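In response to the reviewer comment on reproducibility (Comment 2.3), we provide here a single inverse folding case reported in full, input and output, so that an independent group could reproduce the run without further information from us. The structure tokens appear first.
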């Protein structure tokens, strides 16, 4: 059975994303603040932002970037992020946001795979950016720095954003951009494997803004806090682009710190926040919450991982807010489901209903046929927001989007007869840690580079707070068998921690005699999880 939204379909935009977001800017809005930094107060009005976007677009055009070329953004949340993102789009190029926590090696993988030619970053991230661009195969020819001019101290020229924009000829004709051109290339592990470039068009991203309108109902007087990384599709669509499109104020915080997060809400009178379940847990339990005036808060949206109904209720009761839940994937731009703000009847532990223009089915994991209402099955979705495919990976694309155009999410759900969906399990092997995706295959490949490890597997197991954590099961080589287990486990965790972003760190190590595998060589993760729980 195909499930559709209780809301009418929306008209699919026929303009590029940057025009959809900024194209109808009222002159009266030009002097209104658009985005500002919570810690410094620095930011842009809508007029300043659109002029900077035009300057970035012109400067990139002068550098020869155009249709199909890629520029990467390696930065935490900052007021300059939307200026760079939409400036890249205005040049006809593709923006590839990179996680601000990446190590130089991880960043180099994305730069190499995306063939990025320009890299935007911040002064604080410049050392890692410089280290990444010298890796073999990386084609970055210039680093553009948000902040002060840096000169040419790295292996490639470095220019400040102000220099770039100030020297651009904005009178030149704007690049021709079609709605079906690629706009963004975020990286996602999808349902399995290493990070892959997700090809999202202008139309994908623009229509998803309309599709997700029922969640939150953002208006021109709204104040949003960008604590979810703007490198994540959740942050790009639900916060940055949705806020700017509705002429709301977007306040950025560079990284999550509970005290700074609460201070920003209180100081800037934030009424909409988009968060992940670990932040919901802090809002429900931390005594620090009582030290701040959060009375401006109205809407709290949680996404990126399933939210427990009791936790949703605890936050709603403590803060006097409406708690909503959204669901999606990078591959769907991202939103496919959500709890609309005008549906208080929907269980807050659910992912709500299908958004407009999306068709959803729940299918048997073995046969692919539709299951009955209330029975578990894999969620698959089809709509105008589904990605074009993975960059340079037709095999992974075919495994994720079927011949009928359905995106296979890898999530096991149930759906009631009235169309309310609940996530109950995951088919995919991804570990969700604090809202981030951690690919076991990436950590396993890294572990096998350790001279003392013969074989390894990684699974996600719940910790004391219920948060899923990467745990490594390790078979030791003979050279490491004489080491005390505690010392070697610490060495293994340090080995990984030095080579990956903090959220990917292995949090526990267990030594085993062998890694269970199927006849085809596939790691039997379920057996490892069961054995680990049985030994506790």
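Designed residues, in position order:
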């Amino acid at each position: 059975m195909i499930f559709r939204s209780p809301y009418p379909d929306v008209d699919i935009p026929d303009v590029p994303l940057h025009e959809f977001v900024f194209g109808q800017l009222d002159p009266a809005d030009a002097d209104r603040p658009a985005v500002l930094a919570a810690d410094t107060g620095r930011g842009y009005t809508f007029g300043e932002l659109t002029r900077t976007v035009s300057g970035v677009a012109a400067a990139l055009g002068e550098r020869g970037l155009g249709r199909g070329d890629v520029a990467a953004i390696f930065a935490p949340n900052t007021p300059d992020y939307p200026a760079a993102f939409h400036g890249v789009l205005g040049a006809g190029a593709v923006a590839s946001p990179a996680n601000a926590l990446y190590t130089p090696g991880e960043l180099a993988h994305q730069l190499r795979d995306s063939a990025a030619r320009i890299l935007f970053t911040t002064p604080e991230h410049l050392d890692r950016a410089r280290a990444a661009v010298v890796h073999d195969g990386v084609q970055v020819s210039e680093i553009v720095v948000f902040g002060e001019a840096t000169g040419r101290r790295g292996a490639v020229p470095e220019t400040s954003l102000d220099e770039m924009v100030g020297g651009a000829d904005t009178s030149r004709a704007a690049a021709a951009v079609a709605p079906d051109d690629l706009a963004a290339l975020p990286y996602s592990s999808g349902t399995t494997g290493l990070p892959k470039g997700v090809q999202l068009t202008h139309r994908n991203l623009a229509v998803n803004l309309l599709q997700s309108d029922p969640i939150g109902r953002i208006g021109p007087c709204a104040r949003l806090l960008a604590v979810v990384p703007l490198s994540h599709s959740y942050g790009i669509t639900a916060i940055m682009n949705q806020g700017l499109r509705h002429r709301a104020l977007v306040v950025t915080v560079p990284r999550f710190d509970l005290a700074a997060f609460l201070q920003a809400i209180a100081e800037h009178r934030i009424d909409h926040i988009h968060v992940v379940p670990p932040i919901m847990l802090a809002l429900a339990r931390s005594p620090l919450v009582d030290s701040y005036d959060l009375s401006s808060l109205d809407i709290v949206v949680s996404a990126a991982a399933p939210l427990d109904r009791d936790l949703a209720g605890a936050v709603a009761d403590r803060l006097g807010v409406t708690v909503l839940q959204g669901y999606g994937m990078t591959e769907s731009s991202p939103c496919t489901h959500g709890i609309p703000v005008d549906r208080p009847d929907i269980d807050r532990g659910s992912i709500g209903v299908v958004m407009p223009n999306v068709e959803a089915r729940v299918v048997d994991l073995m046969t692919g046929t539709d299951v009955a209402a209330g029975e578990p099955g894999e969620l698959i979705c089809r709509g105008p927001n589904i990605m074009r495919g993975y960059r340079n990976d037709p095999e992974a694309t075919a495994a994720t989007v079927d011949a009928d155009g359905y995106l296979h999410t890898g999530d096991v759900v149930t759906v009631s007869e009235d169309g309310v969906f609940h996530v109950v399990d995951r088919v995919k092997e991804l570990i969700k840690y604090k809202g981030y995706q951690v690919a076991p295959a990436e950590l396993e490949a890294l572990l096998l580079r350790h001279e003392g490890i013969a074989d390894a597997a990684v699974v996600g197991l719940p910790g004391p707070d219920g948060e899923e954590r990467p745990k490594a099961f390790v078979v030791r080589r003979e050279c490491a068998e004489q080491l005390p287990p505690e010392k070697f486990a610490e060495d293994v965790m340090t080995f990984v921690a030095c080579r990956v972003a903090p959220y990917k760190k292995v949090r526990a190590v267990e030594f085993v005699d062998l890694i269970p595998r199927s006849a085809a060589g596939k790691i039997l993760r379920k057996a490892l999880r069961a054995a680990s729980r049985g030994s506790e």
